[in-house]
Structures are given as structure tokens and as C-alpha cells.
Amino acid sequence: MGSGKFGVYVPEDLMIELSRCMQALGIKSRSVAVREALNLFILEHKWRYGGKVTGVLGLVYDHEVNDVDEALTDIQHKYLQNVISALHIHLNERDCMLLLVVKGEASEIKNLLSELMNLKGVKLVRPLLLSAEK
Ligand code: NI
């Protein structure tokens, strides 16, 4: 496939943010910004294609919600082969950040991710995963 061109409708608020972002990054051409955004979007989701992936799952959770700490520990033990390391940071009186360094098949990491997302008390799960495939 050769190069391509397409028109995209962009709402006003996103347009304003785009201009702000381009200014901050010193990008003058909208095409350059959109190409960069597409590259980031693809990089963000590429691990989902399958194969081996490595990276970090970042979580924010409310540790005062019943049993959430125990549930998080159980899940890490269940995914023993995938969870390499964990870092716990106390954010404030209630919220904790948990960073899980993970590795394995994309399908396994997807399952782990969905278990974490569905836990009561977990406010946010943000994957930062890179495909180990080309
Ligand atoms: Ni904590």
C-alpha cells in the first residue's frame, strides 16, 4: 500500500488541545502532529495483536475498599509466570499506586489486565506494554 490522505472531522475542544500541544512541542505542521499521534496510537495498542509482550501495568486503587489488597495479591500469585515485580506507592491517605512489571503472551496479559480492571476498589488501570515482536 502506498501513502494515503484522509480528511477527519475534529471537534473544537480537540482542535484547541491539538494547537496547544503542537505549540508546546514546537510542531508547526498539522500533518506532522497527526502522523506522530497515529504512531503513538499504534504503539500503544500494538501489543494486543498477539505474541510476546513486556511492560508495566499501572494501577490506582482505594486500599480502604474491602479486601482489595488481598485480591490484588491473589491475582499476582495466580499470574506468577507473568508478574516479574511489583512496586507499591502510597499516594495519599486512601489511594495506592501499584506498578506491576509484566511479561508474557499478549493473551495472558489481556486476561490479567481484565481481572485487575474488574476488581472493586481499582480506580484506574493503565497498561504500558511493548510488543517483543517486530
Ligand atoms: Ni498504599
Automatic annotation (TrEMBL):
Keyword Oxidoreductase: no
SUPFAM superfamilies for this protein: ACT-like
Superkingdom, taxonomy of origin: Archaea
Binding annotation for Ni(2+): 77, 88, 90, 96
Alphabetical GO biological process terms: response to nickel cation
Keyword Heme annotated: no
Cofactor: Ni(2+)
Keywords: DNA-binding, Metal-binding, Nickel, Transcription, Transcription regulation
Any one Gene Ontology molecular-function term assigned to this protein's record: DNA-binding transcription factor activity
Domain Transcription factor NikR nickel binding C-terminal intervals: 55-126
Pfam family, one: NikR_C
InterPro entries with a match to the protein in the record: Acetolactate_synth/TF_NikR_C, ACT-like_dom_sf, Arc_rbn_hlx_hlx, CopG/NikR_regulator, Ni_resp_reg_NikR, TF_NikR_Ni-bd_C
Co-factor binding details: Binds 1 nickel ion per subunit.
Assigned protein family: Belongs to the transcriptional regulatory CopG/NikR family.
Primary role: Transcriptional regulator.
Name of protein: Putative nickel-responsive regulator
Record organism: Zestosphaera tikiterensis
High-level lineage: Archaea, Thermoproteota, Thermoprotei, Desulfurococcales, Desulfurococcaceae
